[in-house]
Design goal:
This protein has 157 residues and is α+β, with helices and mostly antiparallel strands. The protein contains four helices and five strands; from the N terminus they run H-E-H-E-H-E-E-E-H. Strands 1-2-3-4-5 form a five-stranded antiparallel β-sheet.
């Protein structure tokens, strides 16, 4: 009976453990440090998935990581991806496509280099688009950046 109760308690804890790995929505990220911007246009190999205007934001811990090359737990990087519209020889921001998040926690996200990955469709915290696919959808692309703590971006001078 004791073994059965222990097994039940372990099984009951599994959903809570799974929820621990959920990447939180980065409230207030647009007031964080703006790291850089870029535009991915047609012809770029990532255009289908990431075409548009990217703005990268970093919280204070992520800024420590950008400066040192190693990001501490609690570092959060957000790439805010917006539609890009061309008119009158200018590129302007359109609707938000996704708010992509990298959240550093070496224990919670050990299988993906210490980073949790999530995307919020339209920037809506209720519309997660990565979920349990983080390893294949995000980390597979970031893995070659291991020497840079899995981060592509760098600070601009």
């Amino acid at each position: 009976m004791k073994i059965i109760l222990s097994a039940f308690a372990a099984l009951a804890a599994l959903p809570a453990l799974a929820d621990d790995a959920v990447v939180p929505y980065p409230e207030g990220y647009r007031s964080w440090t703006h790291v850089k911007s870029m535009v991915i246009e047609k012809g770029h190999p990532l255009h289908t998935s990431f075409g548009g205007i990217h703005h990268l934001y970093a919280n204070a811990k992520a800024m420590q990581g950008y400066r040192s090359g190693r990001f501490p737990d609690g570092a959060v990087i957000v790439f805010d991806l917006l539609e890009a519209s061309r008119a009158g020889n200018a590129i302007s921001e359109g609707p938000r496509k996704v708010a992509g998040v990298m959240h550093k926690d070496t224990k919670r996200y050990a299988s993906t280099g210490g980073w949790g990955f999530e995307g919020f469709a339209g920037g809506d915290k209720a519309r997660r688009v990565v979920g349990k696919q983080a390893e294949s959808a995000c980390f597979a692309c970031h893995a070659p950046q291991k020497d840079r703590d899995y981060v592509f971006s760098s600070l601009r001078d």
